[in-house]
Amino acid sequence: MQFLMMLLVSFSLFATTKKEVVYGEDNRVDVYASTQSAYVEYSRATAAMVPNILLHATGKETIIRSASLTERGICADQKFAAQPTAARCSGFLISENVLVTAGHCIRNDADCKINRWIFDYKIDHADQVKVKVPNKSVFTCKKILGRMFEENDGTDYAVIELTKKVTDRRPLTFRKSGKIEPGTSLVVIGHPSGLPTKIADGAKVRSVNDKFFVADLDTFGGNSGSAVINTKTGEVEGILVRGETDYIDNEARGCKEVNTCLQDDCRGEDVQDITHVTVIQTP
Q: What's the alpha-carbon Rg for the chain, to the nearest Å?
């Protein structure tokens, strides 16, 4: 059991091919710090995928235990360094009991069983370093309704049915046809580096491909599966799936720092076009 715990807890959020990065100014903020009421509402439909072994239910609440960014080797002066990093991936609600994430996040029924989907995994004030949520915010995956992960063409999504309905929050709406346009303004909501929910706006679409588009989103490992939302329409345009390297070594300090690019530099972040997630599209 101790070995299994070490394996799960030491799952690297920083050594995966699905890395991301900050472009220009770091626009990530905690939910409580957001001045955009619409974004805060969208964040309520955001869920964190957390290994069961990091959860401890007590009475009406569940305590989420995990190492902080600093404990995982990130320099102590980096943004959110003292916060916990429990989330392995992000997801978002599209109906009362259906959640969407990235295909590389959940591969099979075994992944359904060893993880929970946690809503309200967020920080409520600046000094908070531990997180607990109501037990009613903790959900179990019942089955995978549809999944594709094709590295050759960039397809990367999974659609999950939860064992019970989520009745205390509004699911997100999403694009059902057509294509997003280059230059469209975006906001992404999820769990960068496994952190409690972060909202990051100030991004735009750089280019549009057949099955995904590229944007200058401030996202990190753990954001995989995050909803990428059109700021004008409020609709989900896609699922964050991969991008640039997120942290770089500072050898002099013996820790890692956020990799920062100019707003229009580096490779950009890839977002699975939601209209290609055929299992959720209606005629």
A: 17
Q: What is the pLDDT of residues 204-223, one digit of tens each?
A: 999 999 999 999 999 999 99
Find where tokens 């549009």 sit: 208
The pairing of beta strand 55-58 with beta strand 61-64: antiparallel
**What does the mean pLDDT of the chain come to?**
91
C-alpha 46/C-alpha 36 separation (Å) is 16
Question: What pLDDT does 9 receive?
Answer: 40
pLDDT of residue 6: 35
Using DSSP bridges, classify how beta strands 255-258 and 185-190 pair: parallel, antiparallel or unpaired.
unpaired
Count the Cβ atoms, other than its own, within 10 Å of residue 278. 10
Sole residue written with tokens 């991969």: 242
Cα distance between residue 113 and residue 94, in whole Å: 21
Query: 170 phi and psi, to 5 degrees?
Result: -95, 125
Structure tokens at 151: 């590295």
CA distances from 150 to 90, 211, 241, 272 (A): 19, 11, 12, 11
User: Using CA atoms, how far apart are residues 95 and 160, in angstroms rounded to an integer?
Assistant: 11
pLDDT tens digit sequence for 10-45: 444 433 434 458 998 999 999 999 999 999 999 999
Distance CA(134)–CA(124), nearest Å, equals 14
Other Cβ atoms within 10 Å of 191 Cβ, number: 33
Whole-number Å distance between alpha carbons of 8 and 209: 35
Please, what CATH class does the domain formed by 16-283 belong to?
mainly beta
Cα 217 to Cα 20, 39, 101, 160: the distances in Å are 8, 15, 17, 25
